[in-house]
Amino acid sequence: MFRSLHALMRSLAISSLLSLLLLALPTISWGAGSGGGGFCGGGVSSSPTQRKQTPEQISAGWYKQGVKAKEKAWRLEEKAAKATKEAKRDKLLADAQKQYEKAVGAQASALQANEKNHEAANELGYALRKTGDYKKAIGAYNYALELKPDFYPAIEYRGEALLMMGFIEEAKEAYMTLFRNDRALADQLMVTMEKWHSTQPNGKSKSTFSGWLDERRNLAEAGNDLSMNNTRAW
Predict the structure, then answer these.
(1) What's the pLDDT score for residue 5?
(2) In whole angstroms, what is the distance from residue 110 CA to residue 141 CA?
(3) Which of 171, 173, 174, 152 is nearest to 162 (CA)?
(4) pLDDT tens sequence across 147-203
(5) C or N: which end of the chain has fewer Cβ atoms within 10 Å?
């Protein structure tokens, strides 16, 4: 167990990009038409007649493929939520997990092609988190933020991962950063915080966090009212 976030961060420090990408990529199957490691729709091509792509283009192609896999997982999860039979729901959720695993492989490939693709690092973190690997997810978010410190989507995603691991104070810090810089993402993290809080057992820590949530919610609403007043025609 990690005794502090600092210990966690040290354990996840990325001394080289290689340590982030040891993810057994050859096991990922993309189905027919993928070109044996390439992908459809603008990715690496197995055809030698096509123009050679730059690392940035290859990375962008893998990134798009990973996003498609993530979005397919979302659709499967939506269907699972509506399923009335447990067996059907379990099958849909299992299929969604396979799509998240494909997203992990695609985004790792995107980073192998272009190690400066901060969006791919962020998406890698998201896919890892959805497969339950929170430690590696935080490592990927950290790497995205090393590349682009003001990339607020990674701060929001990392805040969610920290919350799931029980690092409440650090998740609060993520919220405050977003509150000052990107209110929409701050609101998104707040929704996740409230859902997580509702599932926690009663106790002093839950009560303390509840008070903080109430305070931040009221301040956010007051800020919205003030913003509306500032734009109102008198």
Answers:
(1) 55
(2) 15
(3) 171
(4) 999 999 999 999 999 999 999 999 999 999 999 999 999 999 999 999 999 998 887
(5) C
Q: For residue 12, what is the DSSP state? A: T
CA distance 189 to 156: 6
The alpha helices in 182-203, defined as continuous H runs, are 183-198
Nearest alpha-carbon partner for 149 in 124, 126, 128, 121 = 121
User: Apex CA 63: angle with CA 60 and CA 67, to 5°?
Assistant: 140
- Note the CATH architecture for domain 1-18+53-149: Alpha Horseshoe (1.25)
For the record, the structure tokens of 131 come out as 């497969």
**Which tens digits make up the pLDDT trace of 6-55?**
555 544 544 444 455 544 343 444 443 443 333 333 444 443 444 789 99
Q: Are 107 and 62 in contact (CB under 8 A)?
A: yes
d(CA 91, CA 79): 10
Spans of all domains in the chain: 1-18+53-149, 155-229
Residue whose tokens read 């070109």: 35
